[in-house]
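Appendix B. Raw example, untouched.
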Amino acid sequence: MDGVIFDTESLWRKAFLAANKKFNVDITETYRQGMCGKNEKLVREELRVHRPSLDVDAYRDFMLASVNHDISVGAFEVKPFFEETIHYLKEKGVKIALATSSHKVRAENLFRLKGMKIAGIFEATIYAEDALGKSKPDPYMFLEAAKKLGVKPEEAVVVEDSINGIEAAVRGNLIPVMAVDLIPPNDFAKEHAKIINSLNELKDLIEEA
């Protein structure tokens, strides 16, 4: 959802830079990108190991407050071609699921703020509370989404902007597509995933399949 449907990843990066300054730490952008796609519990656990002297809860709470404020005032946009792509997929009879590490309330709020309803777009949903505590790069979330759609994993395309999401798709034997947002594709993504720079390019992949 974040980075594929909404441009909220830019809000996270802004909050990350502000948190580094406030807490006087030099956590790198590379490390931040490595956290993308993981659930909040795992992010905090890994951060405690990475920076044992940091008040991780205060650090992350500061970031969350910043992002939530920006979202509440509508300071984010729907990614280009999202609605056109959904219309195209529905015309083709392609089943669509939303699988996100965010909680249901947050996800519904993002769509509501942009005048959309999740139930009117997706045939199935998987949220953080449905994932049994598992987080990307574990493929559980995507496998459950495929199951809800009634398709085999190898028939399901995962559109992701994070490396953790791409790795999860590969581990689950799903078809990975990396929609590039703020994170550049690494060697793993280049080897295992189709790379697109816009959701509009997804149409070409579907036509080729």
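End of appendix B.
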